[in-house]
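Table 4 source record.
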Amino acid sequence: MAPVREQLYAAIDVGTTKVATLVARVGASGAIEVVAVGRASSEGMKKGMVADADALTQSVRASVRYAEEMLGHPIPSAFVGITGAFLVSENVTARMSDGGQQPVSERDVDRLIEDTVAEYGARRPVLHVIPRMYQVGGVRNVRNPLGLNGAGLATQAHVVYGAPEPIALLNKVMADAGVKVRGFIIEQLASAEAVLTADEREIGAVLVDIGGGTSDLAVYKEGTLAHSAVIPVAGTQFTTDLVIGLGITPAAAEATKLHFGSCDTMGVSEKESVNVDTGMAGHTRPVSCFHINKLLRDRAIELTRLVLFKLREGGFDRVPASGIVLTGGSANLRGLAEVMREYAHCRVRVGTPLAAFGLPDELRESAFSTGVGLLAWGIQRRHAGAVAPAITVSEPVSSKLRGWLASRFHWKRSEKSLSALA
């Protein structure tokens, strides 16, 4: 395959709570450097669906504008993350109708995938056709068919498609914001690209990307994506439980969750309390530590059960051997990993972009897993020779990221979790 000449790549993570834009430059040697970032609060998105197109357009435009100001010119066409209950996946077998004894070529593989897209695309937009295994002639379970001889080529593939209206609406939002979409990538696929190790993919692992509106699930087995799903329970639902259970505003509930919340109720006294800002004219009142944690724990248990249910839907009667890897902006809720470990009876870890990318600490946060993964996915598949061992970050980008993280996580240095207060 001839080297791709384009040197700039852009990725946009459109979430329920934030829109993050990353731009990377790929040098002649294949070295990758993040040269611009933009971030804005997300308005108009609900559980992965566009609820207010005008508001979301403004959010995307703001995020992109910040990146373009740092870049000095418009961003290139972008890989855009997508999620939502309107997405459907299934594992299929596809075959070429012809073929002789000649060696399998890249063109043969491309034709096989194109035929699969055409078959599904006649009814709904196809986002991904991901081959899992091939069959060449009578030889099954072939991972790389190129150069093999055999009459006939077939593949077992994971196909992801969706309802046309939500995808078209998100595409329109991007166009109205001045963004040309190079491709939509499901968010759990991007996050897995950034977070899962090669061993986890091979042995089998469940990636759960917990965002603001949805938790996106990807199951890997024998090195490839075997199942994907979207769960409409995520960070916003944890916050809403505090709004209802404590009778406070959403902003106050989010602050309470971040400052004091934990899914751990063990050893937390029902008599222990903290003063919580209600969000109403500066009014505060004491709230039971146990009550806050119990609300969060109940929602964590529900999320765990939904993850296990989606696994069973995909044909998995147990969690794969490598366990569950949590990532996304809401994955760092204290005690969440422990609850999943307890109820799923498996290994659970919180995943951040892998050290192998060589990222600075500012980007090695689970909140950036999707954005980093979108870049990595797009570059590795579109730019021949982009195999640098590290993704570096320019100093302006590093300074901007440090500022974001300081404003978001400053409370960690001054506040104690409720479990620590007990």
